């Protein structure tokens, strides 16, 4: 069965920033079609794992595969979509919500023969328009499609960034702290949207400090502190005993995670 192939598989994976190790000998296998929450203290290498998957960080040694193939080949195939914790964009730039979400389709558009022959603004292939419309509906931002992105609240901007990720219609969604800095209504909407995507067969791999959210929504929880501490059900991995193991050498975990609902 195709689904028996891991969505993400790491073998002996090492990574570093400026010669400082961030991941050490990581072995990990994440299933397709499920929601996996990646939990760990600050500096544990959680975001680094996503950066390895999207190609913004190169491994020192070891192997990372996506859907049984090299990460690079799956990036080219459009199999992954990534939502950063903080978007590096000019919020005052005169671009609408719809146009912002459309940027998530640009990689696919470059491969579209109609897009290559016709002016991009014509949206030559209706599938691009449909994907953007569906993504805006999913995050309840369709009524704001024509608004300048800079006029939105923080929670609304986060929902637009999620819509841009969803518009790529990738098999794997990589999310780095998607709830950071959002208001409770947007938080609830984001989690409900992701739950719907998981139900539709998407693989969700989400870095989070929100332990109650991980317990409620995730199928699997991975504990990382530079290397794999454990992987299993939320109840097992978020027990006091496992969180104590995770925190060894990282006492700041108690201040950096939400441990109660």
Superfamily (CATH H level) name of the largest domain: P-loop containing nucleotide triphosphate hydrolases
Q: Tell me about the biggest sheet?
A: 6 strands, mixed
Strand arrangement across the biggest beta sheet: 6-7-8-3-9-10
Q: Give me the oligomer status.
A: single chain
Corresponding CATH architecture of the largest domain: 3-Layer(aba) Sandwich
Determine the strand fraction and express it as a percent band: 15-25%
Shape: globular
What is the total tally of β strands?
10
What's the order of the H and E elements? EEEHEEHEHHHHHEHEHEEHHH
Unreliable residue stretches: 249-261
- SS-based class: alpha/beta
Broad CATH class of the largest domain? Alpha Beta
- Alpha-carbon Rg, integer: 19 Å
Helix amount: 25-40%
| Total count of domains | 2
Walk me through the topology.
Layout: E1 8-17, E2 20-30, E3 35-39, H1 46-54, E4 61-66, E5 69-70, H2 71-76, E6 80-83, H3 97-102, H4 106-109, H5 113-117, H6 126-138, H7 154-166, E7 172-176, H8 184-199, E8 203-207, H9 211-217, E9 220-224, E10 228-232, H10 234-237, H11 240-247, H12 253-256
Parallel strand pairs: 3-8, 3-9, 6-7, 7-8
Antiparallel strand pairs: 1-2, 1-4, 4-5, 9-10
Helix pairs in contact: 6-7, 7-8
GO molecular function: ATP binding; ATP hydrolysis activity
Keywords: ATP-binding, Nucleotide-binding, Transport
Domain ABC transporter: 8-251
């Amino acid at each position: 069965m195709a689904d028996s192939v891991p969505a993400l598989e790491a073998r002996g994976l090492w990574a570093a920033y400026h010669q400082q190790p961030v991941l050490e000998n990581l072995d990990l296998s994440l299933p397709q079609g499920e929601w996996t929450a990646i939990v760990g203290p600050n500096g544990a290498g959680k975001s680094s794992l996503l950066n390895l998957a999207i190609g913004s960080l190169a491994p020192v040694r070891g192997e990372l595969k996506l859907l049984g193939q090299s990460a690079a080949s799956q990036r080219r195939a459009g199999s992954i979509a990534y939502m950063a914790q903080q978007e590096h964009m000019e919020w005052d730039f005169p671009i609408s919500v719809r146009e912002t979400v459309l940027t998530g389709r640009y990689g696919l558009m470059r491969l579209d023969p109609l897009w290559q022959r016709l002016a991009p603004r014509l949206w030559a292939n209706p599938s691009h328009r449909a994907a953007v419309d569906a993504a805006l509906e999913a995050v309840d931002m369709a009524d704001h499609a024509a608004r300048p992105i800079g006029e939105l609240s923080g929670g609304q901007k986060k929902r637009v960034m999620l819509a841009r990720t969803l518009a790529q219609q990738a098999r794997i969604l990589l999310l780095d702290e998607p709830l950071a800095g959002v208001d409770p209504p947007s938080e609830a909407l984001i989690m409900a949207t992701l739950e719907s995507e998981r139900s539709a067969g998407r693989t969700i791999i989400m870095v989070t400090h929100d332990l109650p959210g991980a317990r409620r929504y995730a199928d699997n929880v991975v504990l990382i502190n530079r290397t794999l501490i454990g992987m299993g059900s939320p109840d097992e991995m978020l027990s006091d005993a496992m969180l104590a193991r995770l925190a060894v050498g990282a006492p700041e975990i108690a201040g950096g995670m939400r441990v109660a609902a």
